[in-house]
Amino acid sequence: PTKHTSIIKVEKKKKKTGKNKAQGNMQRRSHLNRLTEEQLQRQLDWCIEQLEQGMMSHKATSKQKEEASRALKTLRSSKAPLVKKRQVMRAMAGDYRKKMEEEKSKQLKLIQNGAATQKSVFHRRAGVKATTSESDTNSNNDLTAAPEKNFVFTPSKEEFFFNFL
């Protein structure tokens, strides 16, 4: 344990932490790159959707439809550079980022208003009681007899699972 060996150990520790910092920075950069790629894809999808809606409207002239189809071709192209795509999006949709935010806020307001005004409605399902009188049994049989005649259960060979997104 001389001074020289302890200095070497400290230097080795510094080197390790430097590697960890560089690795952390790389992870952050890759995460940011993924976020920007996702954002770009959302912007592209939004602009493509707007152009398609514009082409489907009856108000669009043949010249506008032709311009929109060229823009769609550019936006969907995997070979077109990012700068060109952004230029086309700006030319066709104007300030598309602002418009996307406005549309998002409108949809959020509609959802909130719809949830506030909508009331839950519960429907009670008819069931067979365990202990019933004969008159109740006859009325239940009348209700349940018709669906049983038409319904044929065929078991599926596929396994059941929930497909949540």
Give a nutshell description of this structure.
It comes from Neogobius melanostomus. The protein has 165 residues and is an all-alpha fold. Helices cover 73% and strands 0% of the residues.
Question: Could you outline the blueprint of secondary structure elements for this entry?
Answer:
Blueprint: H1 3-56, H2 62-76, H3 82-93, H4 96-117, H5 134-150
Helix pairs in contact: 1-2, 1-3, 2-3
What distinguishing features does this structure have?
extended; 5 helices; 165 residues; mainly alpha; DUF4615
Written overview of the protein:
With 165 residues, the chain is mainly α. It has a domain at 7-101. 73% of the residues lie in helices and 0% in strands. It is built from five helices and no strands. It has helices at 3-56, 62-76, 82-93, 96-117, 134-150. Helix 1 runs antiparallel to helix 2 and helix 1 crosses helix 3 (82-93). The longest helix is centred in the first third of the chain and has 54 residues, at 3-56. The mean pLDDT is 75.
